[in-house]
Every structure is written in structure tokens, then in C-alpha cells.
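Entry type: protein chain
Record version: 2
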Amino acid sequence: MGKAVSHWRGVYEARYRDIRHGVFAHKGLDRAAVNDLMEKTNVDEMKEMFGFLHALHLSLQELYLNGRKPDLTPATFVLPPTARPIGDSMKAGERVYRDGYDVLFGMLSATRLWKTVDSEIPRDRPTFRVRVR
């Protein structure tokens, strides 16, 4: 477990920590610096890291609550998330993707939202619209 945590911590510190600190937490970087940081990122690597973190969280929870041996098999995410039967919940990474998608599209102007984006929204999943005022 320690080796896996060390590996992903190294990946986070090398590529994503400065983005978290300079873009999302403190907003102290200009556009050029943000672009330089974002060029180092990889979506598939982030999905893999989130899958590992999901597995780590569940493993530690099960170890604490039930004494089960940790299983660090990374979770796989369905992106974009598809509609699921009632009672079958999405993984945290899938909810983050869905909610982020909906918020970002909700920030578009109403005219653009209805004319261009509406055709781009996947129809195989529920859509949540945010009102633009």
C-alpha cells in the first residue's frame, strides 16, 4: 500500500499540486502560467489517479469498519456517466464529472446554450440545467 501511495503522491506533486495551489485554491497565476501547468497534465492519468484514490478510500474504510484486508484495485469510471438504475449510485469521480459538466454548460449564455450546446449534450444520461441570470 505504501508503494502505491508514494507513486501517486509523486505524480500529484509533479503535475497537479501547483495547479491546485495556484489555480483553484489561491488564484494567483496569470493565464500563461496556468497554460504551462495544464500542458503537463493527462486526463487518462487523472482518471487512473482518481480510481486509485477511490479504491484507497474504500479499502481504508473497510479495514477500519470491518477489518477487511485492503484491496487497492483501481476503480474504473464510466465517463460520461450513464444513467443507472435506482439504488445503484455513481462513484465519486463520476458525480464530479457530471456535476462539473452541468455547471460549466450552465455558465454559458442562454442563447449559446440553447443554440449550440443543446445538440452536444449526450442524450443517454440525465441532464441538469443551471439557470443563467
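Comment: The chain has five helices and no strands.
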